[in-house]
Each structure stands twice: as C-alpha cells, then as structure tokens.
C-alpha cells in the first residue's frame, strides 16, 4: 500500500468520513474486496452495499450469506432472488 493510501486509511479509521468515502471508491476501483469487507465490518454502509452488489453479480452465495448474517437485508433479498431463480431453472 502506498503512503497516500496508508494516510487515507488512517484518516478513515480516525473518523474522517470524506477519507472513508474516498477509500471505499479506491477499493472498488482496485477490486479490493478484502478492503471493502474491512470497511463494511467497521460499519460503512456504502461498502456493504457494494459488496452485496458485487456478490449478487457473481452469484456468490457464501459472501451473500456472510453479509446477511451480519445484518444486511439487501444480501438476504439477493439470496432469496437467487434461490428463486434456481427454483425456476430446475
């Protein structure tokens, strides 16, 4: 991680909402799901939303289940949709 990213991470961890938003955007641009997970676990709802969207596109039920278990209603809804699609296809 570059020094700029490390400073941004520190600012975000310190409660700087603008830095946190930028850090979420950078994680998305870099495809860094681990960083998005860390941000989501720290309570960033944008990171949760982006993880749900990404997992839904990949039909990653494990990730969706993890997010749903952590309280994401959107993840639960996507799981229901995916399971419904499986029922229709079967």
Question: How would you characterize this protein structure?
Answer:
- With 90 residues, this protein is mostly helical.
- The protein has one domain.
- Helices cover 82% and strands 0% of the residues.
- It has six helices and no strands.
- Helix 1 crosses helix 2, helix 3 crosses helix 4 and helix 4 packs parallel to helix 6.
- It is elongated and about 45 Å long.
Short characterization:
With 90 residues, this protein is an all-alpha fold. 82% of the residues lie in helices and 0% in strands. It has one domain (3-89).
Note the main sheet: none
The total count of helices amounts to: 6
Uncertain segments are: none
How many separate domains make up the residues? 1
First-last Cα distance: 45 Å
> What is the H-and-E element order?
HHHHHH
Number of distinct beta strands = 0
List the helices and strands and how they pair.
Layout (H helix, E strand, L loop, with lengths): L2 H11 L3 H14 L2 H9 L3 H14 L2 H9 L3 H17 L1
Helix pairs in contact: 1-2, 2-3, 3-4, 4-5, 4-6, 5-6
């Amino acid at each position: 991680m570059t020094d700029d990213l490390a400073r941004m991470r520190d600012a975000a961890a310190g409660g700087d909402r603008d830095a946190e938003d930028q850090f979420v955007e950078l994680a998305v641009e870099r495809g860094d799901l681990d960083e998005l997970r860390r941000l989501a676990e720290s309570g960033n709802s944008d990171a949760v939303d982006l993880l749900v969207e990404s997992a839904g596109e990949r039909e990653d039920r494990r990730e969706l289940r993890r997010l749903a278990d952590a309280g994401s209603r959107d993840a639960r809804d996507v799981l229901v949709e995916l399971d419904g699609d499986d029922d229709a296809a079967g």
